[in-house]
Amino acid sequence: MKKQFNRMRQLASQTVGRAEKTEVLSDDLLQIERRMELVRLVSHNTHKRLVSCLQGQVGTDSEKRHKKLPLLALCQTMQDGGAQLGDESLIGKMMEVCGQAETTLASELMEHELQIERDILEPLYQLAEVDIPNILKQRKQLSKLVLDYDSARTRWYQATKSSNQAMAAKVDSLKDEMEEALNKVEICKDQLSADMYNFSSKDSDYASYYLTLLESQADYHRKSLAALETAIPNIQLQQGQMGGPTTPPPPITPLNSPARELTSTPPPQRNGSVYLTAGTPHSQGGSRGPSPHLMRRGRSSLHVPLKGDPRGRPRIRWEDDISKLALGRLGIPQDEVSSLLELFPSRPDS
Q: What are the residues facing 287 on neighbouring strands?
């Protein structure tokens, strides 16, 4: 209790600047200490997220882990469905053989997760929750020993400067206490320095955990792909033996439909003059120009505004509308439409 009180009093004196604080760690060791804190944090977060990515329960044996896999539940469901439909049903047979393939994938997944737990999760947990906390615990212990040494040194220094005989009699005992505290500081400092330098020398080992993770994932995917490439041809062969469809025929689209040959030919370009320049028979057997009745019907069907009609639109706009209608519905070029419009007589102003 007295030692704890001396520590608190020495810490308060150092905080307000009335007492000198002893620094026992070099700059390199202080830098390693700061980096250890960061490594512990990122390793803890990585371990936590990696555990959440696994489908099996971490820490259980292989049999229990295999039973808890969602993929194995899917396999069991597919095999049960195949048994209910029977071997006579193509769907039932496919569900059964595909369920067996999914069982193989579930076994590969279980082996992969066991390897992840053994080679990555356990070392990360050891680093983040055991190794680095032990070093930091030693660092706190060293700080306490340094406070004890500073407190003993302060009391010894005050006793040497005091004129009180009682205090002068305690100089030797205080000096022995100070030397003993210094020895404890040196021992703890040496052990802490060795652990810190050992941690710093294993950076490559700690970094290899993440490369091991990628290599394990690559090996798992290769094994899963090999299992699928082995199972799929056998399943397709069984499907063909049971009379199932192989490759479905391509759907009939308008591009390869026979009816497209009838509709793909564009409509012939018709000369609009046959519609509007057809004359009536002449008495001499010839033909004359378009009759007024035909011209009125043509003007009415094409919505050509009469001259002087205040409701009519400008000539340029209705000529464009007529040209678009004639080209889209009759196939008459624009130049022929313009020539045909000249044939329409204008109504005299009233």
A: 281
